[in-house]
Amino acid sequence: MATFLDITALENFANIFVFLFVWLSIYAILAYTKILGRNQLLSIFIGLMLAVFVLLSDLAIRIILRIVPWIVLVFIFILITTIAVQSFGGGTFEPTAFGGINQVLFIIVAVTVIVGTLTEVRKSVSVPGDNETATDFDRDFSQTTTVLFHPKFLGMMLLFGIAIFTVVLLAAKQT
User: Fold this and answer.
1) Do the Cβ atoms of 116 and 148 come closer than 8 Å?
2) Alpha carbon 122 to chain centroid distance?
């Protein structure tokens, strides 16, 4: 019996969703930044061509299908955080000397997307020296995610984050 939660039929349309997502994202970025001027037809055509190129690559489709839900969750979290800060009288996120919280959130999202993309690419590429016949990746440090989620690496990233924010706060103008 088909239920509301049975959405497995949408899996057949994943390529169409990826095509539309890439096309509209590229068009929106080009239209917002006005890199190509006010020529919208050129922005639409470049978005269309890049979407076709992504559609031809199975690896690119897998990467986009894996990363887009996480990007949506981050944007929802940012939206809820912004609403909560403004409702408690925190004001808006005004840019400061270091670019404001908008750039910090953009950098965090960009780094997350890059790490996720590189992890997916590493899983799908066979590197000389790896055992191509082995199907399990239980060896230590054979997978990128094993290294990225190791407690020592996470601790090092936490210390780097604390150091960066310490330097930013100490170097800020005291007015």
Assistant:
1) no
2) 17
- Complete DSSP assignment for the chain: ---TT--GGGGGGHHHHHHHHHHHHHHHHHHHHTTTTT-HHHHHHHHHHHHHHHHT-HHHHHHHHHHHHHHHHHHHHHHHHHHHHHHTT-------TT-HHHHHHHHHHHHHHHHHHHHHHHHHS--BTB-TT-----STT-SHHHHHT-HHHHHHHHHHHHHHHHHHHHHS---
Closest to 71 in 3D by CA, of 123, 111, 31, 121: 111
The 10s digit of each residue's pLDDT in 82-137 is 788 778 776 665 555 455 666 777 777 788 778 877 777 777 776 666 555 554 44
Query: What pLDDT, in 10s, does the model give residues 66-84?
Result: 888 877 887 788 788 878 8
Residue 68 neighbours by CB under 8 Å, 6+ apart? 21
Q: In angstroms, rounded to a whole number, what is the distance separating the alpha carbons of residues 155 and 160?
A: 9
Task: For residue range 9-51, list pLDDT tens digits in order.
Answer: 677 788 898 999 999 999 998 898 888 888 889 999 999 999 9
Q: In the numeric block, which tokens belong to residue 117?
A: 């993309």
Please tell me the pTM assigned to this model. Answer: 0.58
Please say whether the beta carbons of 26 and 51 come within 8 A: yes
